[in-house]
Amino acid sequence: MPLTPEQQAEIDEARATPRQTLRAVSEGMERHLYVAHPVLDHGLLRVIDYMGDDSAIVQAARVSYGRGTKAVSNDEGLIRYLMRHWHSTPFEMCEVKFHVKLPVFVARQWIRHRTANVNEYSARYSILDREFYIPAPEQLAAQSTVNNQGRGAVLSGEEAQRVLDILRDDAMRSYDHYEGMLSQEGQQGLARELARMNLPANIYTQWYWKTDLHNLFHFLRLRADAHAQYEIRVYAEAMCRIVADWVPLAYAAFEDYRLGGVSLSGKAVEVLKRRLAGETVTQETSGMSKGEWREFEGVWR
Ligand SMILES: Cc1cc2nc3c(=O)[nH]c(=O)nc-3n(C[C@H](O)[C@H](O)[C@H](O)COP(=O)(O)OP(=O)(O)OC[C@H]3O[C@@H](n4cnc5c(N)ncnc54)[C@H](O)[C@@H]3O)c2cc1C
């Protein structure tokens, strides 16, 4: 578990002091509030705060005075309509703030999502912990031979051991040097902001990350996807489970239209029409490139 007993005690205390509120409360999200969900070997994900629920989306779409409609089926229909037609602003009325502990190389991918507010742990101010991401044996894969951005077969035996030894030794040696540079007996020690520069990218950092539901769905569509790197995907998948409990109607619509659905080009629609009319269409006669055709055919497999 990536938490110290003191950190767990702080979380327990926060959860032990509920307050009454007039604000919209999502029962599903209340169960997650402050709880640390472990991710990777030392990482975590937890909800620090949130605003809104499914009704808040409906309420914003209708600009109503109360809490949306009484009938859940009406709310569900409207939310599905909004999702289907890319009416995104009602989803922006819901917000969530996460505390994430993640390896630096994952943080570099994550930070590319610009539509969020971020506060990162300062390694100029504080000393980083000796915590490095070391892949589990089943994630220690070779370079893919078919996808330049992916993994192939899992390494095994001597090769796997050699790689693990290198990862561990390099991390520990770098950290020893980091500590050594920060404080040397009888000497001033190097500034924290400089000593950190030779730490490897698998060291853990932490941040608070706040975004709205529309942009969170965008993040999840890209990062919970099979093409995303495993190490960021596991965070996205943990978020999906939380969001499903927070806004079940909105998440179900997202799962259906975005995660499970596909977007077809005009050419793809033409090919479908021609096929439905009984014509045999190939990549050469489709007007699509080889890559487009491969993806198009992949949808139906
Ligand atoms: C599988 C995968 C592989 C990738 N590979 C690479 C890679 O090799 N190299 C690389 O550099 N990146 C790579 N990326 C990162 C990718 O190119 C995007 O930068 C990242 O996914 C963030 O997406 P975004 O800009 O849509 O998201 P966000 O920054 O969250 O923005 C959300 C949406 O807001 C709008 N928006 C935000 N800011 C602006 C703006 N300033 N101007 C106009 N519109 C804006 C856009 O509509 C955008 O889609 C990869 C991402 C994935 C998922």
UniProtKB/TrEMBL annotation:
UniProt feature coiled coil, ranges: none
Top-level taxon in the UniProt lineage: Bacteria
Pathways per UniProt: Pyrimidine metabolism; dTTP biosynthesis
Catalyzed chemical reaction(s): dUMP + (6R)-5,10-methylene-5,6,7,8-tetrahydrofolate + NADPH + H(+) = dTMP + (6S)-5,6,7,8-tetrahydrofolate + NADP(+)
Cofactor note: Binds 4 FAD per tetramer. Each FAD binding site is formed by three monomers.
InterPro entries xrefs: Thymidylate_synthase_ThyX, Thymidylate_synthase_ThyX_sf
Gene Ontology BP term (one): dTMP biosynthetic process
Keyword Transit peptide: no
Keyword terms, alphabetized: FAD, Flavoprotein, Methyltransferase, NADP, Nucleotide biosynthesis, Transferase
CDD domains on file: ThyX (cd20175)
Positions annotated to bind FAD: T89, R112, H113, R114, E120, D212, L213, H214, H218
Alphabetized SUPFAM superfamilies for the sequence: Thymidylate synthase-complementing protein Thy1 (SSF69796)
Active site: R223 (involved in ionization of n3 of dump, leading to its activation)
Top EC class for this record: transferase
Methyltransferase listed as a keyword: yes
PROSITE patterns: THYX
Sites where the protein binds dUMP: Q109, W110, I111, R112, E120, Y121, S122, A123, R124, R196, R223
Family membership: Belongs to the thymidylate synthase ThyX family.
Reported function: Catalyzes the reductive methylation of 2'-deoxyuridine-5'-monophosphate (dUMP) to 2'-deoxythymidine-5'-monophosphate (dTMP) while utilizing 5,10-methylenetetrahydrofolate (mTHF) as the methyl donor, and NADPH and FADH(2) as the reductant.
NCBIfam families the UniProt entry points to: thyX
Subunit details: Homotetramer.
HAMAP family documented for this protein: ThyX
Name of the protein: Flavin-dependent thymidylate synthase
Primary gene name: thyX
